[in-house]
Amino acid sequence: MGGAVTEGGAVTGSAVLLARARAQCIAGGVRCAGAEEVVARVFAVQAQDLEAAALGLRARAYGLTRTAVREALEERRTLVRGWFMRGTLHLVPAADVHWLLALYGPRLVSRAARRYRDLGLDEDVYARAERVVVDAVAAHGPLTRAELAERLARAGVEPGGQAPFHVIRRAALAGLVCHGPLRAGEPTYVALRDWLPPPAGPQPAGDAAVRELVRRYLRGHGPAAPGDFAAWSGLPPGTARRVWPEPAPYGQGTEEPGTDDRRPDEPGPPPDVRLLPAYDDYWLGWRDRDAAIPRDFVRSVRPGGGQIRAAVTVNGRAAGTWTRPRPGNVQVSIFAGGPDRVAADVTAEAADVARFLQS
Asked: What 3-state class would DSSP assign to 275?
């Protein structure tokens, strides 16, 4: 299995950083053909903010448009937004939704049990509320959270707090509903069985599902160790160690078409500049989440409180941050001492962000 290393892995520093950046399609000239290809490569894109997720796809693809992302989500339905790794919203391939829900759903429901009780969602109340949600989306979906909350209020669920969200989320974790199309910028929910076809064949389960998740993780994040996978997946470190493959020859796992097949310790390609969005998965894929940020500028990218700012990377290393002070305008701030030779590439990337947002 490509890219697997032990916790005390033999290769370190810039070699690992560049290999990981290539695996993430943000260095070495590596870009994918479209949104589905990006997600197939990196497996999951954090999607708490759907526009940020789309910008993350743009950074990893050739000439991607917002329309193409929407079509993948809403027309082809090849990508699905749901709660998976770490209980956080991600975009994942539609073909993987069912086994991921079987792997994560029971864990995340169990983890939230105390929160359910605090909200008055005991099993009897939840069972009634779930029926309301399932029947509503089947008969009238897609429905927004507000529309579902209105219906849940008739079943005794307080509409103004967090209870409706947790009912909807739990129904999604059970594989009953899923995110549907946006409506005026608002997420909607639909019946999963109506939105996606049933699985095409046998689905991995138990340790086999975790092994498949490891395989997919390493494809987009290797080289990595069990602790890295545990931090990314939210699964217990012991589970990661139990299914971890034997260490593979260094550099395997980044052999996809279009990638650079040189060893990372050989002379590298020209500087590759990308503008990554806020909360990009690149900053969340390993146990050491600051490894790709110069020490003096960690707080510029990760100011605290769980925030992760939009960042400029050069060959996978943070070189600055960027903002959109107004529509159509991208403002870049390169860190002091940053590489001057990439100014033209930064300008081109900023222009591509503006192009994407207007597409």
From this structure: strand
- Tokens 């500028």, residue located: 297
What tokens were used for 210?
């975790």
In Å, how far are 52, 77, 92 from 39, measured between CA atoms?
14, 13, 6
In whole angstroms, give the CA distance from residue 157 to residue 125. 8
- Altogether, the residues listed in the chain come to a count of 359
Q: How far apart are CA 313 and CA 199, in angstroms?
A: 38
**Residue 333 CB-half CA count within 13 A:** 10
Token match 């510029």: residue? 300
Please write the tens of the pLDDT for every residue from 56-112. Answer: 999 999 999 999 999 999 999 999 999 999 999 999 999 999 999 999 999 999 999
What's the mean pLDDT when you consider all of the chain? 91
Specify the pLDDT at position 160: 86
Q: Give the whole-angstrom CA distance, residue 212 versus residue 234.
A: 15
Using N-to-C axis directions, what is the helix angle for 13-23 and 207-221, rounded to 10°?
Answer: 110
- Rg over CA atoms, the chain: 21
Please state whether beta strands 79-83 and 143-144 pair in parallel, antiparallel, or not at all (unpaired). Answer: unpaired
Question: 31: Cβ–Cβ under 8 A, 6 or more apart, which residues?
Answer: 25, 60, 61, 62, 258
- Residue 42, exposed/middle/buried by CB under 10 A (0-12, 13-18, 19+)? buried
- The dihedral of CA 285, 231, 202, 245: what is its sign? positive
Residue 14, phi then psi, degrees to nearest 5: -65, -30
Packing angle between helix 97-111 and helix 163-173, nearest 10 degrees?
A: 140
Q: Give the tens place of pLDDT for each residue, 249-262.
A: 433 443 333 333 44
